[in-house]
């Protein structure tokens, strides 16, 4: 079995998930607790989760987001058989659950290959986010997190209209944690993006304007390098170029948010 194209997830073979259980977790619900030994192999079928770790006593910090196709239960890259993070639903999440004892009894070749594809994709997605926390400046980290959240939450949204916006279901404080920023830094950088019309903020909430440009952003960064989003002005230029390719004036999206209430 060859590698999946970037950004895709191979569907597990029906032969080994035909009797798997499907579970629904509501927004804010903890799916896996740090330090636990999950008894099930768990993969995300829809929705998105946040990985939360505890630092300095009782302080909890969000470190990454995972979504469609990622494996978060037993044998996952999140600690193998002992969970390293609290895995919390950012929105309503549907998972596919299979008892680990059944999988460990003797995996068929196809089952093993499918599982390895999913483990590898999950590890890559997690490491990309950790890399950004270490490599980018504060603004680059924030932009990366916003684009990541857009990708995580977009699968359940109709993005056919170029002016589609996305109201993020996480507070600014959580966005700051994912970016490794203080609340003040987060507020400043969001304000810079808002000045160029790519986000709107209301109290603690953030709305991404021009969702399709945000969804295409990190692929553009992969090709051009982090320097293209080193400042609000540079980032705005890239988003505007993506919107232009898509036939969208970014003001169309902003007007939709401000005057028609258009959101996801």
From TrEMBL:
Signal peptide: none annotated. It comes from the Bacteria. Gene3D superfamilies: Jelly Rolls. InterPro entries: cNMP-bd_dom, cNMP-bd_dom_sf, RmlC-like_jellyroll. Residues 24-103 form the Cyclic nucleotide-binding domain. This is CRP-like cAMP-binding protein. It comes from Roseateles toxinivorans.
